[in-house]
Amino acid sequence: MRSLRLLPDGVSIYLKDRFVDEKTLKFNRVFHPTDGQDTVFEEVGKPACQAALEGKYGTVITYGQTGTGKTYTSFNINKGQEGLLPRCVMSLFDTISADTESKWEISVQFLQLYKEQLSDLLCDQPTQLTIREDNDRSTIFVEGATHVKVTTSQEVMTQFQKGSKSRVVRLTSMNANSSRSHAIFMVFLKRVSLTGKHPTTHGRLTLVDLAGSERMKRTKVGSDVTRRVEAQSINMSLSCLGTVIHSLTDPKPNQHIPYRSCKLTRLLRDSLGEFGTASIIITISPAITDIAETLGSLQFGSRALCVKQTSKVYTTTDHTALNNELQDRLDQLTNGNSVLETKLASISADNTLLREAAIADETLIEELECHIKKAFKSKQSIKKLTAEHEQKMQRMKEAYEEKLQIVSEERDVARAEVERLTRLSTERDIASSSPVTEADEVAELRLTLEQHRKKLEEAQLMLRQCRTMQLDQLDLNNNIQRESASPPHRNQPIFRSASKEPSRSVSCTSMSSCNHVEVALQSMQDQLDEERSSLARVREEYQ
């Protein structure tokens, strides 16, 4: 019993025939007959476009039996049912128009391989085309093929429609418009970075519509030699493609890949090689009568699924642009160097000024340290002199107190003597005769007066000593002021005020002490004058 059905997992196909054992083949994705063209584009076309934009060779190959929808999937341009080519072109230009950092150069090429003869579908005149290999780039190119530069998606589709008119199609028993040639439509993308952040890349989008594999007895070729040669050429190139796929899946190291076995495989070398990112769409017929061809197509796709590709970005170096870019960078660096030299000169001048200021500050610091040391020594000297002066003042105070005590005692004695003399005068008036003679009394009064005179001289001597000490203290203060005055620095007021305060305190203390002694001596002088007057009155009375 024959059976062909899609499994629910979306990646497997179940196949069974009376001549074929039961098989389940797995793929990356199995499209249901109800899936639209947009679904195929999202799964297959979009990754190929992205690879081309990145500088790789994005390739989509449609393979299958005649009449299964290869051309419809790849090149259909009917509105609402657009195939991969219109959708990929729109996607490419949408992405390129949004890129403001790069300059894009886009060109197209449309080739046909018919009976192992390569022709250019975009050239009105037949030209001889030769497949060449660029030794520098190690890539395949077609010598003599037309490259048409385009700027919009409409221009691309115009060139495609122009080339499609020259493609060989023929009526067969299996398809009214059967493609009798392999069609290869290529979009070349060159991206030049305007900012210099990215290298120049060369991407390529290749859509390959292979002619359908067929059995000549089913297509009823008969005695038509042209159709027989067409079928033989188609089957031979597809067989060579299968051999290349098989070699690519061989695990043996350094396995030879027969790309030169036919022109189709040689044209697809870059797409299947290191720069390529290839996808193969297998189209099959749901008819049970075509199960043998369906099985062959599925086995081809299953084998191709084992090919491991490590795609690389194809980049080139534009030496003229690189030279201009390097020259611009050199000019920028030269200008920047000039600016830096100007800044360096300015910084050097500032550095010189800073060094001079630093030297001046060091000199000033040394002067300050010297003045600080002198001020410290002056402070120590002031402390020492102040201590000595305090000791002298203490001794003077003690001597003054002793003298004051003596003067006070003598004053009491003088007062007592005056009272005694007054009393004697009173008694003299009362008594007519006195046991003491007048001469003795006068002598005694003179002795008392002489004692008071000596005490007065001692007090005057003490007053002169106090005044002398006061003058010495004033000289000391002046010397201290001269030592601490006028340092050659802006912080002079700090040291002057620090050296003045102790001398002012000492001066005030010494002056107040001397004034006190002077007042006391003046009081004693007044008392002695009073006693002298009293003695004079007594003398007058006795006389």
What's the topology here?
Layout: E1 3-6, E2 12-16, E3 23-26, H1 37-53, E4 57-64, H2 70-75, H3 84-97, E5 102-114, E6 117-120, E7 130-134, E8 139-143, E9 148-150, H4 153-164, E10 169-170, E11 178-179, E12 182-193, E13 200-209, H5 216-219, H6 225-248, H7 263-267, H8 269-272, E14 276-283, H9 291-304, E15 315-316, H10 319-430, H11 438-484, H12 492-542
Parallel strand pairs: 4-13, 4-14
Antiparallel strand pairs: 1-2, 2-3, 5-6, 5-9, 5-12, 7-8, 10-11, 12-13, 13-15
Can you walk through the features of this model?
This protein has about 550 residues and is an alpha+beta fold. It is built from twelve helices and 15 strands. The strands form four sheets. Strands 4, 5, 6, 9, 12, 13, 14 and 15 form an eight-stranded mixed sheet that branches. Strands 1-2-3 form a three-stranded antiparallel sheet, with helices on one face. Helix 10 runs parallel beside helix 12 and helix 11 (about 440-485) packs antiparallel against helix 12. The radius of gyration is 66 Å and the shape is rod-shaped. The termini are far apart. The relative contact order is 0.09. Residues about 430-435 and about 490-505 have low confidence and may be disordered.
What's this, in brief?
By secondary structure, the chain is α+β, with helices and mostly antiparallel strands. The chain has helices spanning 37-53, 70-75, 84-97, 153-164, 216-219, 225-248, 263-267, 269-272, 291-304, 319-430, 438-484, 492-542; strands at 3-6, 12-16, 23-26, 57-64, 102-114, 117-120, 130-134, 139-143, 148-150, 169-170, 178-179, 182-193, 200-209, 276-283, 315-316.
